[in-house]
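Internal tracking record. Fields below are filled automatically when a chain is submitted to the structure queue. Please do not edit lines marked as system-generated. If the sequence contains nonstandard residues, flag them in the REMARKS field before resubmitting.
Queue: standard
Priority: normal
Entity type: single polypeptide chain
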Amino acid sequence: MDAGSVRALNALNRAFYRLTAAHFDESRGRDWPGWKRLTPILTALPQPIRVLDVGCGNGRFGRFLARTLTVPPHYHGMDHTPELLEAARAAFAVMGVLPDAVLEERDIVERPPDSGVYDFVGLFGVIHHVPGSAQRRALMAALAERVGPGGVLAFASWRFMDHARFRERITAWPDGITQEAGDYVLDWRRGQAALRYCHHVDDAEQAALEAATGLTLVERFAADGHTGNINCYSVLRRPSV
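SYSTEM-GENERATED OUTPUT FOLLOWS
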């Protein structure tokens, strides 16, 4: 995908989240069931774990970690929407958890994480918003570089095209922007009209993203939603030294 199209689609999504931040925060408070399946992996890491939550939104994965782990993690969340970061900060304060949390405003499409070493790197509800197949693979490679020895990288791909209720939200593709296979624009139907760019990651691309990390695949599984399969998870590990 050409650079101009990447910028345009990323701008569409940035505007989407600024516009819908309040409604998004209200409707995105529950833990993902798939995270519970990660619990044995998280608890087996040396505590306290260093966590990088990429595209952290309103911090709900951080809240899950705070409730799940006996020892509070060192948490670093990053997101491009300041309103959602403020929601995360407020939620942590109300819960009285993660007092040393770092919440960074950062556009990971423009600037993938490029420093720090972590025991666990998570990318949940994000990869479908990254425009361009090459950009998605590059992001996965960049995230893998942040994983320390024995650490874990987990990401989940939203399988929206496998479900009629999400396919019904597909709208016209914008003029003048490159469209790759699996690219769509979906509408938003909660409180405010808005559009977002989404890419459907199928099994073949999931495998390509896994391979781009250079890490060892531990597990791939489906979870979440009332059907139990709206997200496809990949869990990968860097060998210990």
